[in-house]
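[recover] target loaded
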């Protein structure tokens, strides 16, 4: 067996061209989702109509590279024992095939979105801002773009690589033995992220995903760690794109960085 792609991940997908969405998620396609990014990358997105997507090998969570705390789970590919030479050969081929798939899965490009916090009239969570970037000192000026599952999918222009979109399953460490779990499983300490993950079937260091920003972006929220002067500067700069007028909002969270 030989492979250089992840093949078919979902058994119940809804496909729009080469973007495959888990059916359960597509049923909630009008659901709001959010993506946190540095403002400088937002400018790049708007200028080039491309979304920068990193390889997960660069993520800080080392479980993204297949590392697990419990040693007995680290390898995760176990096949039935056999004393038949033909079956033994078949097992060996299967093992190498799955090992290759696992290597590809842990070196694929991932775009991370979140269902966010939609409780009552508040659509923000200070812990999300802290998790995804706390201002200039650490990550630079940060913002959050809002869209829906459907508009994310429909904004993606022609792209040769297959893509899969699914909510992430959070669970304790366990034996993981298939590509779907290798990509869409996370340790339950991260469950507050409520991640919706777009996986691109490539092992490049990064991808500039062709995307129609006008179709993608519903609104933009600026980080509470950006001061009022810089917030206004960013809003003025972004509103040069006419479709963004009235869609850029400062955070309603009042931290010392953005106090009046």
């Amino acid at each position: 067996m030989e492979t250089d792609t992840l093949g078919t991940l979902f058994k119940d997908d809804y496909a729009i061209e080469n973007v495959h969405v888990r059916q359960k998620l597509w049923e909630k396609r009008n659901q709001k989702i959010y993506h946190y990014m540095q403002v400088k990358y937002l400018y790049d997105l708007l200028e080039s109509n491309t979304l920068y997507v990193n390889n997960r090998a660069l993520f800080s969570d080392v479980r993204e590279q297949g590392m697990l705390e419990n040693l007995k789970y680290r390898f995760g590919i176990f096949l039935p024992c056999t004393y038949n030479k033909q079956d033994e050969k078949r097992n060996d081929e299967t093992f190498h095939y799955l090992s290759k798939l696992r290597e590809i899965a842990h070196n694929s490009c991932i775009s991370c979105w979140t269902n966010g916090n939609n409780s009552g009239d508040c659509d923000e969570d200070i812990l999300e801002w802290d998790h995804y970037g706390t201002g200039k000192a650490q990550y630079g000026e940060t913002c959050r773009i809002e869209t829906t599952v459907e508009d994310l999918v429909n904004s993606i222009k022609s792209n040769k690589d297959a893509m899969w979109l699914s909510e992430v399953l959070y669970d304790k460490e366990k034996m993981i033995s298939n590509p779907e779990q290798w990509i869409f499983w996370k340790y339950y300490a991260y469950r507050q992220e409520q991640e919706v993950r777009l996986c691109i079937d490539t092992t490049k260091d990064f991808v500039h995903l062709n995307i129609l920003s006008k179709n993608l972006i519903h609104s933009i929220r600026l980080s509470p760690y950006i001061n009022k002067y810089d917030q206004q500067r960013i809003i003025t700069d972004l509103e040069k794109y006419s479709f963004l007028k009235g869609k850029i909002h400062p955070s309603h969270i009042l931290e010392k960085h953005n106090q009046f």
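[recover] notes: Residues 85-105 form the longest helix (21 residues).
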